[in-house]
Amino acid sequence: MDSTPSPSSSSPFELVSSALGRYIPSGGTAPAARPADAQGDRTTTRRVPDDAATSRQEQILGAVNLDRDLRITGCNLDAPVFAGLDAVVGSPFVDLLPPGDIPTVTRRLRQVLETGEAHVARIQRLRRGDGSELVVSLSILPAAVPQEGLTVSVIAMARRLHLYAAETAIGTSLDIGETAQSLAESLLAWGDVAAVDLDFAVWTGEGVTERAQGRIRLRRAALVPDRAWPEGYVTPGDDLPSDASRLLAQAVQRDDAPQAIVIPDREAVERVLGSPRVMRALVPGDRSAGVACIPLVLDGPPPVVLGVAEVWRRADSPFRDSELFDLQELVARTVHHVDLARQHQREHTQVLALQRRLLPRAGGDTIEIASVYQPATPDSAGVGGDWVNSFPLPDGRTALVVGDVVGHGLGAAATMGQLSMEARALLSAGLAPDEVLQHLDATVTLLDDSESGLAAGYSALGSTCCIALYDPVSHDVALSSAGHLPPVLVSPDGHAGPLAVRPHPGLGAEFALREPFDVHTFDAPPGSLLALYTDGLVEDPALSIDEGISRLADTVSRVHPWDALQQAARRVVSTLAPVRQRDDVTLLLARMIGYRKGDTATWRLPARYDAPARARAQISALLRQWRTKDDTLDNVLLLVSELVTNAVLFATGPITVRLIRAGHGLLCEVGDTGNGSPRLNRGGLLDDRGRGLYIVHRLTTRWGVRWTDTGKVVWAEVAR
Fold it and tell me: Potential cystine with 344: which of 145, 174, 429, 623 (Cβ 3.0-4.6 Å)?
C-alpha cells in the first residue's frame, strides 16, 4: 500500500520527509567519517569531497519545520551526512547558521512568511556542534494552509550537484548586482569569505574590450557573508583602491593570459600587496588567511577579463588542486550570466535615460507640473515603453502628452522616442490633438510594415496615446485619446472622476477597425487638477480596471491645493503601487493656474476696412494702462495693424484680436475664418504682396499659425 500522503493533505515538511527514503543509501548508514571530519576541517572534506562514492552518498535530502517565530517544530535529518547538526525541537533555526549569515537568512525566512513565495536553491553553510560546517542547498517553502510556518529543505552538496545548483541559482536574474551576489554565495562553499569585483565598465553596463595589463578599474559587486566589516574594508558599491585594482589585474593577467592564482598565507599576502592600505581594503580580518583569485574571463579572440572573484580561507586549510579546478569550472560556467547581466544593465540604462529625458522638467506661470516614472522590476525584460511629456507651446498654451508603447526594451524605447518627438513637433506647429493622433497612427502603421517594423522583430501595433492642450486664457482643455485610459479631473471643489472619453482601438489598428479621433473639450478653471497616467498605476489582479481608476480618482482628490505637487505625485504612486510592478508606472499631475483676468484682453471686430484702426485704438489704450514702453507699444501697434489688415484682405467673417501679458513678452493673436496658410516671402522693393509677414517676422521673437474648427489664429510674441 502506498503510504505517500496525498498532496492535498500534506505539508511540505511531510512531503519532503516521505521522499527521504529514495535518497538515503541502502542500509541507512554512511561510511565512517574520515579523521579530518572529526577535527572539523571545513575545507578538505566537508566542503567538496573528491571521492566519487562519497559524493554519491552525500546527495542527501533533509527537512526542518519552523513556526512563525523561526523556531524548530520538527526535523528529519537522520541521514549520516547530517550528523552533528543540533536541530533540537524548540531551538531557533538560526543556531544552525554561521554568525555572519544570520541576518541574510533571517531576512529570507521572513520574506517567505510574508509573501508566501518560496526561496529555492540557496547555497548555504550549516554549523555542526564540533565547529565544522556542512555545505547544503537550502530551499525555504511556505507551509500548506491551514498550517502556519515554514519548511526548510536541505540537500548536502556533492561536487557535481553543487556546481549544477550554483549555476542554476546564478542564472535566475538579469540584475548585475544580484548575479554577482549569487556567484559570491556559491563560491562561499570553498572558503570563509567570497567577493566578486567587476570591471567598472561591466558594473555600469558599458562595452568591454581588451585592456592593457594593469589598466583594469575594479568595483566590488558582491561580498558574503553579510556582516559588519572593519573600517577601510571594501564592501559592495565601493571602488577598490587603484593599487589594489592594479595588483589584481597584474596577478590574473600574467603573461597576458588570464589565469587563477593562489596566495597561500598571510605572509605571502602581505608580500604581494605590500601596502597597509591595500591590506585593510582586501584582507577580511586580522587572522592568518590565504586567497584564491579567479578571473571572470569572457571567451573571445582575445579573451576579456570582466572582473575577479576572490575566495578567502584560513591558512591552515590550503586549497587543493581539485578545489581550484572546481572554482575555475564554476566561474567559467557562470561568467556568461555576468555578461548577460552587463548587457541587460546597458540596455536598461539607455532606455531609462531616454525615459528620464522625456519626463517634464517644470511647468510655467500658468500651469504647475509634476511627474513620476517608476520602471518595472529590474529582472523584467528591460524598461517599458511608457512615456509622458509636457511642454509650453509657442502660442502660450501647454501640451500634456502620455503614451504607452507595446513591449519593453530598446525596440519599445526607439518607438517611444520617435512618437514623443513627432507629437511635440506637430503640436508646436499648431495642429489640433486629433490631427496629431492621425499622424501618429500613420507612423505606427509605417513602423510595422513588413519591410521595416516586423523585420526588426518588434511591433508597435496597439500602442496608446492621450494628448491634452490647456488654454490658460479660456481655461479649457482640448483632449484626444487613442486607446488610452481616461484622464482623471479634480475640480476646485474637490469632486474627482474620470473624463468621459470615447473608447478607441489605439494606434495602428486594422483598417476596418479604425475610427476618427474625437476632440473632447472641457472646462478646467484655476485650481483644477488633471491626472494623466499609464495602466501600470491602476492595474491590479484583484480589481477591475474601473475599480483601479476609481481608486486613483479617490487618491488624487485628497491632494490639497497647498500641497507641493511633486510630493503629492510621489504619494499617489506609493499609495496605488507601493511595490515595483511587472509593468512601468507613470503619472503626470497638472494643476491649472491660468492667466489673471487683468493680463488678457479680447476684442471681436467685423472684417471691414476700419478694423485695423479700431484694433490699434483699443490696444493702444490697454498698453498705456499696462505702462508699456513706447518702443514696445509702437512695435505692437504695427504688428497688430499688419495682422488685422491681412485678415480683412484674405478672410471672411468676424476677426478676433487677443492680447496676453505673459512673463517678459506680449503675445498678440489675430483669429479669422480663412483657411489659407500665411507664408513668409522676401518681396522686392516694389512688390505689394508678402511684405506684411516680413515686417511681422522682423518685429517679433517668434510667430506662427494654429488651426481651429472655424479657421486659423496667427500669433506673434513681442519682447517687452
Answer: 174
Question: Of 197, 203, 166, which is closest to residue 333 (Cα–Cα)?
Answer: 166
* Distance between CA atoms of residues 547 and 400, nearest Å: 25
Q: What is the number of other CB atoms lying within 10 angstroms of the CB of residue 393? A: 19
Retrieve residue 130's grid coordinates: 564540533
CA-closest candidate to residue 30, choices 79, 75, 77, 63: 79
Residue 683 is predicted with a pLDDT of: 53
For the stretch 22-72, pLDDT in tens is 433 333 333 333 333 333 333 333 333 344 333 444 447 888 999 989 999
How many angstroms separate the CA atoms of 405 and 583, rounded?
12
Strand order in the sheet with 488-490: 367-374, 585-592, 529-533, 488-490, 496-498
The partner residues of 666 in beta bridges, in order of sequence, read: 661, 718
Residue 610 has what pLDDT? 87
Residue 374 parent element (H or E) = strand 367-374
Grid cell 548586482 — which residue? 177
* Residue 97 CB partners (closer than 8 Å, separation 6+): 105, 124, 125, 126, 127
| DSSP code string of 104-128 | HHHHHHHHHHHH---EEEEEEEEE-
Q: Which residues contact 511 (CB under 8 A, 6 or more apart)?
A: none
**Cα dihedral value 10, 11, 13, 17, nearest 10:** 10
pLDDT score recorded for residue 44: 31
73: helix, coil or strand?
A: strand
For residue 669, CA distances in Å to 602, 604, 677 come to 9, 12, 15
Per the CB < 8 A criterion, the answer to whether 162 and 123 are in contact is yes
> What is the pLDDT confidence band of residue 256, given thresholds at 50, 70 and 90?
low
Give SS3 for 713: strand
pTM above 0.70, yes or no: no
Rounded Cα distance between 158 and 140, Å, is: 20
Please provide the average confidence, as pLDDT, over all residues in the chain.
77
3-state class (DSSP) for residue 473 = coil
The gap from C-alpha 461 to its chain's centroid, in whole angstroms, comes to 23
Q: What's the rounded Cα separation, in Å, for the pair 646 and 509?
A: 42
